[in-house]
Amino acid sequence: MSGKAGQGRKFDLDEALEAATLVFWDHGYEGTSLAELTQAMGINPPSLYKAFGSKEELFFSVVDHYNATHGNFMAIAFAEETTGLTLMRRLLLEAAEHYASTTYPGGCLVISAAVTVTATNRHVANRLAKMRNDNINAMAEALTRDRDAGHIPPDTDTKAMAAFIGATLQGMSQQARDGATQDDLKRIAHYAITAIGA
Amino acid sequence: MSGKAGQGRKFDLDEALEAATLVFWDHGYEGTSLAELTQAMGINPPSLYKAFGSKEELFFSVVDHYNATHGNFMAIAFAEETTGLTLMRRLLLEAAEHYASTTYPGGCLVISAAVTVTATNRHVANRLAKMRNDNINAMAEALTRDRDAGHIPPDTDTKAMAAFIGATLQGMSQQARDGATQDDLKRIAHYAITAIGA
DNA sequence: ACATACGTGTAGCGATCACTACAAGAAAGA
DNA sequence: TCTTTCTTGTAGTGATCGCTACACGTATGT
After folding, report:
1. How confident is residue B1, by pLDDT bands cut at 50, 70 and 90?
2. Is the pLDDT of residue A176 over 50?
3. Which one of A101, A164, A165, B1 has the minimum C-beta count within 10 Å?
4. Set of chain B residues whose Cβ sits within 8 Å of the Cβ of A36
5. Which of residues 30-59 of B touch A (CB under 8 A)?
6. Span CA (B168) to C1' (C7), Å
7. Is A147 at the interface with chain B, CB within 8 A?
8. What is the pLDDT of residue B148?
9. Within an 8 Å CB–CB cutoff, is residue A131 touching chain B?
């Protein structure tokens, strides 16, 4: 009663997920067709649907995969940095390297993959927007802990400061897609770092 | 030999262009279908193609219309402000008002309408990217004039400063689409203003 | 060896995409 | 009035969209 009968999957789930990630990262959610996905993943539509459910479910599996791999520098920084200011500094500088990497699509998948969408797919864009806002809120909380600990002035608007850093990161992502180099982004990052005294 | 025979156009070009602008602004280039456009414009496909050529040509007519109307606060600020720093300050504060206006779609059409696109429409995204980069270069030139006039330190990296303001504006545009209010954006703007000493 | 269970490839589903052929209708010139 | 010239609405074009029915093949369990 332990094992299951049947043919068993013929392709590697993680490899297929990574291939789909690169396509979605480059062309966005609606800009990527199933034909493109199946070709990049090396499988046919029925295999894709069997393994991932639908284009939308595959996309959010891709988002999870992205957050756990290419985008995990964010979560690692959140876990390792002990103060809000050093966290902001590290996020900005590491984003500059990742967003303008020459071996992967430019920018951040969560920031760019579903900015404008068809009316029927608005909920997909909304879900990514919530992830962006959640990230800003997490930055604000880290800065609030700094404030409570006396590391930054007690009248600091930590929500506004986090939104400012978030805006800078989002702008860096777009400029990476627009052709900016890692050096270009680092110079932007340093302006933001100086602005908040980090 | 002066006048021309024929029926003459039955709809107003500018009204149709404005209606198309609101749809493209909201859903982006590829997220907007011809059915949506014709319904919003109150005309049928043949009239649209007769007047504007194609979906792509209509879109760039819309971009021109946008720059001449909703987005003209940028060109006006460029023309009226006498120093680079006051120009940056004005762009940031006015963008905060425009991007989070409650009577129009959020953000800036040039920034958000074609971030990720199908492979066949990459040239559309590239054209908007060039407009964004041209805008940053124009900001850099204004700041370089400031530097040459001695208003800002002689070792100022004006290109980097302009890229930083451009990134802030682009981030503000996305956060407006993500639900930020005019107040939220103004607080972001003030961080950037303080950062460059404007 | 046999039966069972699963994934896979082929081939095509209805819906929607951007776009257009065509004829009817309406205004201007003679 | 009659002809010319232009725009308009109807109705569709081929192509592509996301998705799936179904038979085949291949593996496992007994």
Report:
1. very low
2. yes
3. B1
4. 119
5. 30-31, 33, 36
6. 49
7. no
8. 98
9. no
CB-based contact A175:A192 (threshold 8 Å): no
* Mean per-residue pLDDT of chain A: 97
B135 CB neighbour count, 10 Å cutoff: 20
Identify, with chain letter, the residue nearest to nucleotide C4 (CA–C1'): A5
Yes or no: say if B172 and B197 are a contact pair by the CB < 8 Å rule: no
Q: Is the pTM of this model over 0.85?
A: yes
pLDDT at B104: 98
Is the predicted pLDDT of residue A186 greater than 80, yes or no?
Answer: yes
pLDDT attached to residue A3: 58
- The verdict on A66 touching B (C-beta cutoff 8 Å) is no
Helices (H), B4-102: 13-27, 34-41, 45-52, 55-68, 72-80, 84-99
Between B113, B119, B161, which is nearest A27 by CB? Answer: B119
| DSSP H/E element including A67 | helix A55-68
A150 torsion bin: left (phi>0), alpha (psi -120 to 50), beta (else): left
pLDDT for A1 equals: 42
Task: Identify which of A114, A119, A184 has the shortest CB distance to residue B163.
Answer: A184
Nearest partner of B164 among A112, A109, A92, A83, judged by Cα: A92
Can you say how many angstroms the Cα of residue B60 is from the centroid of all Cα atoms in its chain?
12
Averaged over A134-146, what is the pLDDT? 98
Give the per-residue pLDDT at B3: 59
Q: Which nucleotides of C are covered by protein (CB under 7 A)?
A: 3-12, 16-22, 25-30
B129: nearest CA in chain A?
A: A178
